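REQUEST ID: PR-0412
SUBMITTED BY: lab tech R.K.
PRIORITY: routine
TASK: structure prediction, single protein chain
INPUT:
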Amino acid sequence: MGGQYPKISLELLEKLLDERFSDGFLTLRDLPHPSAFKDMEKATARIASAIQNGEKITIIGDYDVDGVVSTTLMVRFFEEIDYPIAWIIPNRFKDGYGLSSQIIPRIIGSDLAITVDNGISAVEAAKYCKEEGIDLIITDHHIPGEILPEAYATVNQKQDACTFPYYEVCGAQIAWYLIASLKNALNVKIDMVCYLELAAVAIIADVMPLQHINRAMVKSGLEAFSKSALPAIRAFMELHQKNECSSEDIAFFFAPLLNSAGRMEDAVHAVEFLTSKNIYDARIRLERLQGFNTLRKETEEHITQEALKQVDPEDRVIVVSGDAWHEGVVGIVAARVARIHQKPAIVLSRNGEGILKGSGRSVESCDLFELTDTCRGYLEKFGGHKAAIGLSLDEENFDTFKKRLQKEYGKRGYQPQGIDPEIVGELDFSTISFELTGLIKKYEPYGEGNTKPKFITRKVRIVESVTMGKDHNHLRFTLEHNGCFLKGVKFKTTDSFEADILVDVTYLVNENHFNGKSTLQLLIDKIVKI
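STATUS: complete
OUTPUT:
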């Protein structure tokens, strides 16, 4: 926990948080017009024509939260205008990602196919659509390859000649914009703010930067989420006994529930939950998702332990593999291994047919997509972005791929930052007040690109440390610094600390509301004995 951090005052904290928003706090009034997207008007006109002519429309989504939400938004819209459509969510294990050749037989007979959160890499599948006489509209936010699929219209802010001013938006935002464009074209009365309650979930889950329009959409979306009449959201709020939800609630509770269906069995269950027609159906479907999520956690924990045993501490990039590791959780395992060792990590599952398939997650300054792209010659499939990749390769290429990756990492001179980028500065306990937490609330919602401010305090005395929780795997502290006493909690830890020792502590400051009383407490990240 070395490194130099500025001494934090309320004034400096406000200045640092302000600097994250160079364009200020935008509102929904600042959203660009749908026509800023290349091909948006062309796509809108084609869909409107299909509706007017009674054509068969099929939506093709994806199995992650963004894909599930994008599909749900489209299904809700067509239900609201009372137009029947078909929709497909590919199965991660049988179909692979997005619009693929495996999906084509299921869309034959459609006049129009619309992808949401996928399709920009579906070059072969687009050819099949053309051969079958199916008009294809692609809506996606991923980076286009050198060859684009031949489609009737392609809406993707990352393609050349697109004038949409924001590069980092997710698939559900583009689906939301398409619905807004269709609403105008068809002249129907629809409350677009209601659609933000789920779009916000996708923005958070897909780790979009919570700045510019993303912040505006999430802020309004979370307000709509908390007041939602949607049975799925009501069932979730009821389960967690909440009256309102924060971005953290979405990131740590709601999004993993939705994701677990696609990871463990089939993401269709997540769409069915979100489109539940009444609270009774929603409760039953929520229970099913809870079961998937429990299984996901158990499977993930087992594979993480297996993966950690294989780590070579000398490697700059961790690459591990195992027999029949569950493909649905290898990405989460890679993230955990990367976090524990503070190195990029790739976790691969051996399928018994000579193929390794898996995911990678990066840390700090390493662009894992760029790095792995230099080894593309060894790979069967590869895609992703700076922080996360998916890949598959022949087993016989495993050792060569791993060695080449280490060599390429060395060439690029990636440097560990040595400091935690989320720590904004060094804080005295005397500065911790409701005025501080009030200032922190002003910059909500927090997430990617606007992380909740984390602080460090040095030479803190542990007055008391006791275990709590059913499994005694959490710690509750009384801490003292320069005569100021504060309570703190550290979750999921096997560490133990004696009283009266001096430590450096990194933490978030939290308001704890209980029995009508509000107190300040520290949510402890790390404790280092001096």
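NOTES: The longest strand covers residues 454-468.
REVIEWED BY: pending
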